[in-house]
Amino acid sequence: MPDLSKMKKPDVKLVFLGDMNVGKTSLLHRYMERKFKDTISTVGGAFFLKQWGPYNISIWDTAGREQFHGLGSMYCRGAAAIILTYDVTNWQSLVELEERFLSLTDTANHDCIYALVGNKADLTDSKAHLCQDSDGLPEDRTECEEGRTETHVLSASPTPPASPTSLSDMLLHKQVAREDAVALYGRILRYKGLDEKSSLPADKMCFETSAKTGYNVDVLFETLFDLAVPAILRKRQENQASPTVDLEDWRQVSGKRGKSSCC
Ligand SMILES: Nc1nc2c(ncn2[C@@H]2O[C@H](COP(=O)(O)OP(=O)(O)OP(=O)(O)O)[C@@H](O)[C@H]2O)c(=O)[nH]1
Ligand SMILES: [Mg+2]
């Protein structure tokens, strides 16, 4: 039986959501382990604990596969920040955020923060300079270049598709422009009933990252940690006012001593 008294109780929860294959797990590995390593498609969900100053933050990685969709709203329950992740080389992964994942966030805190993250920025044509790791050192150039050749960009006036299959194929490979993510951020705020003027601006909350090179990964996590601090302080104040056992938080750590765990 693990010694529960020695476990860190998370102060706040951050949740990654997004379609399969967009790189959620890879972003977490890059930030927590400073590595880009092989992944297998996530089953259910997994969480990592991060000490941020005096605060303990749990970061939840969820499965993007359709078969696990039902679990998403459970993971979002009580979340202080939700990171909606797409693949910048896959237009459909942005569409899925709005169509499939946004409604899962209904269980998040009323003051939850939303970030949009376009991962795999190393695969876009315009980002050749991004092939560096998070320490600013050049990474394996060949790998970056190989990746880029896989990218397919739709021209401004695409030739009409010959069949529905080719349309979905084109959408799959169409790159996502930053403005499209910014427009979606605006729609997310409207969906949440939030006023754009008094919410965090799209400029600050729409990120492009590369788990492979490390580009913008630290900025993403550390911006979110900083933004989550007021929610932690509010929660601590509420707990002091009416001390109760938070079963959700307790469940997250019970039986799990390590830095990360799956469930
Ligand atoms: N080029 C490139 N490939 C990436 C990047 N991030 C992830 N990948 C690759 O994309 C694939 C999927 O990555 P995962 O991190 O497993 O994706 P996921 O979103 O966790 O997928 P699910 O667990 O199925 O929801 C893997 O082959 C990764 O190596 C990136 O920034 N650049
Ligand atoms: Mg995963």
From TrEMBL:
Which CDD domains does this UniProt record tie to the protein?
Answer: Rab20
Top EC class per UniProt? hydrolase
The EC number of this protein is: 3.6.5.2
Q: InterPro entries given for it?
A: P-loop_NTPase, Rab20, Small_GTP-bd, Small_GTPase
Instruction: Tell me the membrane topology, using the record's own terms.
Output: Lipid-anchor
Cited Gene3D superfamilies: P-loop containing nucleotide triphosphate hydrolases (3.40.50.300)
- Identify the GO cellular component terms for this protein: Golgi apparatus; phagocytic vesicle membrane
Name the Pfam families for this protein. Ras (PF00071)
Query: Which keywords are on file for this protein?
Result: Cytoplasmic vesicle, Golgi apparatus, GTP-binding, Hydrolase, Lipoprotein, Magnesium, Membrane, Metal-binding, Nucleotide-binding, Prenylation, Protein transport, Transport
Catalytic activity, as annotated: GTP + H2O = GDP + phosphate + H(+)
Gene Ontology terms, MF aspect: G protein activity; GTP binding; metal ion binding
Family note: Belongs to the small GTPase superfamily. Rab family.
The identity of this protein, by name, is Ras-related protein Rab-20
Give the organism the record lists: Poecilia formosa (Amazon molly)
